[in-house]
Amino acid sequence: MFMLYGPNSQPLSGGTGLPIWYVVWSAYSARLLTDAPGGQVAVEVKLEAYERYNEALDEEASKLLLMQDEGAPDKNYYINEHGRMQVNAPWYGPEYHRMCVEVDWDDIELS
Predict the structure, then answer these.
(1) Where would I find the beta strands (DSSP E) of the chain?
(2) DSSP secondary-structure letter at 93?
(3) pLDDT tens digit sequence for 55-82
(4) Contact 4/26 with Cβ under 8 angstroms?
(5) 37, 64, 65, 101: which has the highest count of C-beta atoms within 10 A?
(6) What is the pTM of this model?
(7) CA–CA gap between residue 97 and residue 50 (Å, rounded)
């Protein structure tokens, strides 16, 4: 089972509508299974990759207006009680797309 939509998965702007992203995410999931060396069938993201991604996500999000005092993050639907964006990915469409199509096999554990 792959989770295709969740926190920080919807691109902020700069691209197509959400249904196209379902196709991009599904293709990535399929690529993990079909291109995995040795016929592996289980996929896990390594903890280091998860932590690196979240650091990059927080760094990029910190540049957005909605995270600044002027954007009223304490009253903003998009910011959760921990001060983090909860819906959108902070990257523009083309950069986020690149992240969603290039598998970094060093960040994945297969079994």
Answers:
(1) 10-13, 43-45, 88-92, 108-110
(2) H
(3) 999 999 999 888 888 888 888 888 888 8
(4) yes
(5) 64
(6) 0.82
(7) 18
